[in-house]
From TrEMBL:
Record's signal peptide: none
The Cupin type-2 domain, residue ranges: 31-96
Domain of life of the organism encoding this protein: Archaea
SUPFAM superfamilies: RmlC-like cupins
InterPro entries assigned to the protein according to its UniProt record, in alphabetical order: Cupin_2, RmlC-like_jellyroll, RmlC_Cupin_sf
Source species of the chain: Halorientalis regularis
Gene3D superfamilies: Jelly Rolls
Protein name (record): Cupin domain-containing protein
Amino acid sequence: MPLDRLPDVDPDAGEVIDEELAVSDDVLVKVFALGPGAELDPHVHDDASNVFHVLDGTVTVVQDDTEATITAPGVVFNERSQSHGARNETDDVVILTASLCPLPG
């Protein structure tokens, strides 16, 4: 297996592509590619923290009632039980990873 696990992803407008990059007993790492206008609906992980690493593009991140525009490279920490999501309000593709740890059991 190659060391670089980031796949080549190219979503269409409004499309979200996600793939698991690493799964262990301790962590889940996924990549999300958001086409223009695409959105990850706000959601909560009660038993885990979630970290977004914005690798490419500019994304609007939502945490509870707060929104912020994050341009790559950027890192966003989402606390346990904190509602979080992301949307692409640009004409370019956004690539981010999300690390969930510890894995809910």
